[in-house]
Fold:
Amino acid sequence: QKQKVLVTRNVPQAAIEIIKSSQSCHLDYWNSEDPIPRDELLKRVAGLDGLYCLLTEKIDSELLDAAGPQLKVVSTMSVGYDHISLPETTKRGIAVGHTPGVLTDATATLTVALLLVTQRRLIEAAGEVKNGGWGTWKPLWMCGPTLTASTVGIVGFGRIGIAVAQRLAPFGVSRFLYCDVNKKPQSVEKLVTPNAEHVDMDTLLRESDFVSAHTALTLETAGMFNKDVFSKMKRSAVFVNTSRGGVVNQEDLYEALKSGQIWGAGLDVTVPEPLPTDHPLLSLNNCVVLPHIGSAEESTREAMATLAARNLLAGLAGESLPAQAKL
Ligand code: GLV
Ligand code: GLV
Structure:
């Protein structure tokens, strides 16, 4: 009897090859660029042994009930797993796999690009070239806050947060401050030059010229970047978020950007995704919004896809997963 597996989207072919190479799998493949509709998903999960999904699928008790008690593993092709209810999977003894590590470099690089694009107003400036707004070279035109000798605050000093700091160091940043649930060992703080300093959130907000969010979305971090937080930042501060849109209160961010409470923001993640084209944030010149492309490098996406496939097969075999999500 073959084990039933569903892949919910068109993913890199290498992952499909891995799944097919396991002779014991029967593969149902939603081979589309677009998400599987919820009601179709609920139908197709019935009787599954393994589910390979993306961050666009909500894995909750309704879905797990529709799948049935034989479901052994949910493997998401993403590092974030806030779309999966871990209390529900844990209760049912279902293993959950994700893709940490393989997208750290790509996401950190995109974060730095977004920071630079926002700070140097590149989208706005390139727009001026096209719309005739480029009159002449002007000393005070298209200026932004300075990166060299600045203080950078990293909220969530994990794999990606550390890699962002490492990439920014060569620009001559003079201090790296970080907030994290725990102070990291000195060996970790020394991975960047100058050494990262663990501080409380108020200190980070007060002293940072650039604030970059790298926390997972959890009950604790949901909406944490709110009015109160923006009001504690410098008026010259640039806020960057490549983690999850849900960590930001977007109404409060809009007000902070509109009123000049902070200088600018670069977002790769929003609520909802896609952000409606008439969303207030898109009317602001000092807000750059990207369509959740942090890990969008070809080899990175392939590495995520194949790691997710290996997680899936390990879960089906009842083995421990190469990368298991933790509650
Ligand atoms: C992307 O956002 C991911 O979690 O991999
Ligand atoms: C800028 O182009 C300069 O020469 O200062």
Observations:
- The chain is about 35% helix and 15% strand.
- The mean pLDDT is 98.
- The radius of gyration is 21 Å.
- The longest helix spans residues 298-316.
